[in-house]
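Quick log. Single chain, no ligands specified.
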Amino acid sequence: MLLPIKPILDRRPRRNGTNLISIQYCHSSDQRIVLYTGLAVPARFWNKKQQKISSDLPQQFGQAAELNMRLQKMIRVAEDIVSFALLHKVEDSIAFLKNVFQPDFDPASLPERFKEMMQAGPDLGAVNLDFFSQLDDYIKTKRRKVSAGMIRTYNVVKERLLAFQKCRKVKITFDSFDFNFYDNLVNYLTYDHTHRRRNITIRGLKRNSVGTTIKQLRIFIRDRVRRKIIPAIDLADFKIWDEETDAIYLTVAEIQALCAVDLSAHPQWGRFRDMFVLGCYTGLRFSDFSAIRSEDIRQGMLYKKQGKSDHWVVIPLRPEAFDILVNRFNKRVPKTTNEELNRHIKKIARLAGIDTPIKASYKRGNQDIVTTKPKYAWITTHTCRRSFCTNEFLAGTPPELIMKISGHKSLKDFYKYIRITPEEAGRKIQEIWEKRGEMQIV
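-> predicted structure:
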């Protein structure tokens, strides 16, 4: 029986200059599967007409005759599996082939494998290879493993990909992922994607938002490969964009100004101010400091498992933080949303006089976008963690100890949180020199 099974060469070269060789089975014009063989050669040594490796393949890539023999053996294995599926009237021969095929599979074990799959269920483990169905399944499997914030991130990435598919008018499949797809997706996200923020429609995403989309897409695809749902896909060209942000931090004096601000005209704002200050003194994310409970406080220390990293931290409570938690909140932080706290803390910081003009910049493509606002307008709940890390660093606390509280796993990530001015850096160096006796105060 002549089956529509043939070897193909992936047109996307890998980092080492070779291209993957796969086996393609076309069940119909719109139903096909690509099987991983583990073989790879440079594209110039693939004979497309004869569908085999050229005999002049350099020895460093292997012996052409031996590699062709292995490839033909795998093709015969795929043919045997499909023939078996057709003979036994398996409804979804593609799913059956996908579940059974391995480069070293022995066709003699097909009856036993078929029996095992029949016992597992009548669908023979059929897999829906629709891209967005697989993405939904991935998000579902993550719900008990990651924070609610990460689930929101996954759903945002899904929405961006759906919008890209609609704009491009080409269905996204697992065969889509080549450099052209990546380039088109990055251009779309950078210049054309529209989203709403604070009831304002914005066109185009910042580099870090584009990078998050690419990063999560890569993680998802590699998860599907590891689960053997799809064949290996070379994502070497899918570069993750990022840029250092101009995010601010609050100095110790500014945090004290927040504590001292008169809120008698707005007594309902007091809990928002106290929550924000608590975040500045603990270094926790909003999702963590907003969920502190009485059992987390023991002997003047705060024991908290971070939701995002699943990492336990033990934080000594400053008198100010202890007063907020125990005396004002009665060991239970009031309920509020991240958006509500962000909105109110800007108003409170404005009352506290934290209004120094701050210039921030980001890239859109190759264009620098510069915006200037009063400092209070830049404050968000994430300012808490940056303020904690930066103030402790300036106070001389070793970075390794700060990281034990902040939960950063690498110094590289930690130093991204440090926000000091050139003047502060100069004063810090001066202090170090003075302690070493290398400099006297002028």
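The first helix runs from residue 64 to 87.
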